[in-house]
Amino acid sequence: METQRHRRRTHLDNSEAPRNRRGRTSVYDIRQMEQAAFNYDSTIDYSIYAYIGQMNIECIHCKAFKFKNETPGMCCAGGKVKLPVLELPPEPLHSLVFGNSPTSKHFLLNIQKYNSCFQMTSFGATNIIKDGFMPTFKIQGQIYHRAGSLLPFPDGDHKFLQIYFIDGENRELNKRYAISTNTRRSIVNELQTFFHQHNELVKLFKVALERMPSDGHKIIIKADKTPIGKHTRRFNAPTIDEVAIVVVGEQF
């Protein structure tokens, strides 16, 4: 996005581009710059065609740095948009992300692998198109995340969110540590403890798991207990001794 924005500004402004005798950039010069953008040559000094200066202009409102010809209200709408100050992450994230130790350097170099150890959902789409051996793929339709059930099926293995509910911290740690190579068990253990204590989604799912009905779960209907302000027919007592519940999902 940054490159496209720089290129678009160069085409429209051209403040540093070669000019004709009247001091204006000719159509021929603009066409030359456009062609040069699609035919890169390492022997050409492109700074004489598309130099936009340094990002050293500070906004008087939000203190953001911008280029010389960017509009004053582009970053924060002239001070109308005010973002809250980002708080420093708690430990151990702060030391891992902002530290200078060998452990921190290792974590930042392999941060994607550590992220894979703790992902809760799998990627999904309406239609995923793969062309041969290309490393990229195309998506048609809607993008979504598969959360799945909180517990695996009897013959299944724990995956994604289900790993958070493995009985025993060591068993959970062993499962996470085996997901990605070149990770350190000590770091995975620290992050696992951190997520269990501070991640609000993990807390929410744990409460939902504890409230899941067991095989001995009972539903008691009291026909004479109608909530105040509600329509009485919504709470009519059933005429048969069965209760039907519809659950929408995949096999659960």
Report on this structure.
- The protein is an alpha+beta fold and 252 residues long.
- Among the domains are: 2-52, no CATH class; 93-210, no CATH class.
- The two termini are 42 Å apart.
- It has helices at 2-12, 27-38, 47-50, 93-98, 102-109, 111-117, 169-177, 185-198, 200-210, and strands at residues 57-58, 65-66, 122-130, 137-146.
- The protein is built from 9 helices and 4 strands.
- A hairpin with a 6-residue loop joins strand 3 (122-130) and strand 4.
- The chain is extended and about 85 Å long.
- Helix 7 crosses helix 8.
Brief rundown of the structure:
The protein has 252 residues and is an alpha+beta fold. The chain has helices at 2-12, 27-38, 47-50, 93-98, 102-109, 111-117, 169-177, 185-198, 200-210; strands at residues 57-58, 65-66, 122-130, 137-146.
Topology:
Elements: H1 2-12, H2 27-38, H3 47-50, E1 57-58, E2 65-66, H4 93-98, H5 102-109, H6 111-117, E3 122-130, E4 137-146, H7 169-177, H8 185-198, H9 200-210
Antiparallel strand pairs: 1-2, 3-4
Helix pairs in contact: 7-8
Give me some keywords for this one:
single chain; alpha+beta; 9 helices; 4 strands; 33% helix; disordered N terminus
Principal-axes geometry comes out as extended
Count the DSSP helices: 9
- Main beta-sheet strand count, sense and barrel state: 2 strands, antiparallel
Distance between termini? Answer: 42 Å
